[in-house]
Amino acid sequence: MLEALDLQFTILLLSNGVMIGLMYSLIALGFVLVYKATDAVNFAQGEFVMIAGFVAVGALTVAGIPLWLSILAALVAMVGFGFALERVMLRKLIGRPIIAVVMATIGLAAILRGLGPFGIFQGTRPLPLPLRDEPFILGPLFIPPIQLLGGIVSLVFLAGFGYFFLKSRKGVAMRAVADNQQVAMAMGIDVERYFGLAWAMTGVVSALGGVLWGNMLGVDVNLALVGFKVFPVVILGGLDSIPGAIIGGLIVGLVENLAAGYIDPYVGGGTKDFAPYVLMILALMIRPYGIFGKRIIERV
Questions:
Q1: Considering Cα of 113, then 85, then 40, then 300, what sign does the dihedral take?
Q2: Which pLDDT tens digit goes with each residue over 154-208?
Q3: pLDDT-flagged residues of the chain (< 70)
Q4: Phi, psi of 142 (to 5 degrees)
Q5: Taking a C-beta distance cutoff of 8 angstroms, is the pair 27, 202 a contact?
Q6: pTM here?
Q7: What is the spatial distance between Cα 276 and Cα 281, in angstroms, rounded to a whole number?
């Protein structure tokens, strides 16, 4: 009897870990999109998710427009924000060292998080979706509806963006821009255009993440911490790999849930918060470019 309960408990942890891992993968896709196009890491990804959640909540509760229009408003706002950010700030950094883009995104993250508590966005705001509260029960599985929705949305968009980069002309051009901006410009590729496209696509991912995670956690400045939670995902999977984002997300989701279920009772809790970072450090020591990341060897 005890063995059956332990097995059911393990299956429950694994199923929840898979769903949460897929939702992590969706946010990790934002890192991958920017890296594939610019060869730089967007350290403001969590803040993008936070801003998307604020837009959706503001449209829903303050403007009083329907939910589907609120989600659409978040998508449009984040696409516009991505384009505007690239045009105003990041376009001037084309051809500069990558560290310049990295530092710009770090500064942007600090600004966005600092502006978050002002005005109508003080406190935690709920972002309700038309989902039932009771979990779906499939044998030993208990799956919350928001996690099921998040997993499905993540898989659809991960597959779509994977096809975009592998099969479409624009996707190949974006990969060429990331590989070498100067050569891409010499080949007639409009680097500025593809920079803007990459940040706009990141805005779409951030809007979806803001709605899904905003429903689970509530919308406030702490929603930006999702970006830090996802960082081990992209390190594990590889910064330039969409399959890596999926595998890394699944690994982190499973590790978090198993740690919470089996280690937390003995140490008083909190292991799920740092277990992914322990895993990330080990990965950096063993395979620093990630499971599916491109191995780059520089000769000096």
A1: negative
A2: 888 888 888 887 788 887 887 777 777 777 777 777 777 888 888 888 899 999 9
A3: 1-5, 94-95, 116-122, 293-300
A4: -125, 105
A5: no
A6: 0.88
A7: 9
Domain residue ranges in the chain: 11-119+138-226
Q: Kindly report the CA angle at 112 between 109 and 281, in degrees rounded to 5?
A: 25
Q: What count of other Cβ atoms lies within 10 Å of the Cβ of residue 129? A: 15
CA 198/CA 165 separation, integer angstroms: 11
Closest to 198 (Cα-Cα) out of 28, 34, 25: 34
Q: Confirm if 292 and 241 have CB atoms less than 8 A apart.
A: yes
**Residue 166: both structure tokens together:** 């592998």
